[in-house]
Design brief:
The protein has one domain. It is globular. 66% of the residues lie in helices and 0% in strands. By secondary structure, it is mainly alpha-helical. It contains 6 helices and no strands.
Length: 166
């Protein structure tokens, strides 16, 4: 493999991890801020499969698409791989948040390993706040140590699984 392949892979992986922080900041300051009207129904369940909150999929997909398309059109390789990194994060977000945590599609169980229990607990605490203020745990993949401790205590000595939050 060429050195270029490693650089491109590093750009994808690096962008993926940067997106966790971008998603955290967007969730805290935009979704729980001036675009709360789009995010409200995610915390206060309404009837139906789709939520206004699903519009954020497009908000995050557009930069990915633009990076890939414009990078290819103008032969700017790093832009293409940044777009791929954003897309991979979007896919991971879909699998973890929509499928695993909220069970909008019943593809996975609730999981028994420590990390997955910590993710579920952190998200459950986030959803314990039904309004836009006083929220906590705005990230998805990076979990505060207190949730690791809680997950460890919940799972000690038994195979109890944490229920996914609604």
């Amino acid at each position: 493999m060429s050195l270029e392949w490693y650089w491109n892979a590093a750009i994808v992986v690096g962008t993926f991890w940067v997106m966790e922080w971008v998603a955290w900041a967007t969730h805290k300051y935009v979704m729980h801020g001036f675009l709360w009207n789009l995010h409200y129904d995610h915390h206060n369940k309404q009837k139906g499969f789709f939520e206004k909150n699903d519009a954020f999929f497009l908000i995050f997909a557009v930069p990915s698409w633009l990076c890939i398309m414009l990078g290819m059109m103008h032969q700017v390789g790093p832009a293409v791989y940044i777009g791929y990194g954003i897309a991979v994060y979007g896919f991971a977000y879909f699998l973890v948040h929509e499928v695993f945590i909220h069970r909008r599609l019943k593809w996975f169980g609730t999981g028994g390993n420590l990390y997955l229990r910590a993710v579920l607990l952190a998200h459950k605490m986030h959803h314990s706040h039904l309004d836009k203020e006083q929220g906590e745990s705005f990230g998805m993949l990076i979990v505060h140590p207190r949730y690791w401790k809680m997950a460890r205590r919940k799972g000690k000595g038994r195979s109890t699984r944490v229920q996914a939050s609604a």
